[in-house]
Amino acid sequence: MSVLAVYQQDPDDKLDYTIDWVPFLGGTVAAPSDTIATSVWVAPTGITEGTPASTKTDTTTTAWLSAGTRGDYIVKNKITTTGGRIREESILVRVRAN
User: Fold this and answer.
1) What is the greatest pairwise CA distance in the chain?
2) Rounded CA gap, 85 and 72, in Å?
3) CATH 2.60.40.10 fits 5-95, yes or no
4) Is residue 1 very low, low, confident or very high in pLDDT (cuts 50, 70, 90)?
5) Each residue's pLDDT tens digit, 72-97
6) Total Cβ atoms within 10 A of residue 75
7) Are 32 and 81 in contact (CB under 8 A)?
């Protein structure tokens, strides 16, 4: 499993994390070759996802993560494109008290 990015978060933080899917979709930001039809985020027990709700554009997906106890969390985002392609990427969120 590969991790797209690593972030650090305090247990009291509520932060948004965005994945730019243009490299996978092809084309450019202004004219992607394909677009995101659906996006599903999955966060493991111990960190809260979805307050406010996750969002997507034609080329990006965003999840809001909060809480968490000290530790490392792999958060996954799976997209399906209008062209029928499916892809999953992961981010690593390290929860540490400041």
Assistant:
1) 44
2) 29
3) yes
4) low
5) 999 999 999 999 999 999 999 999 98
6) 20
7) no
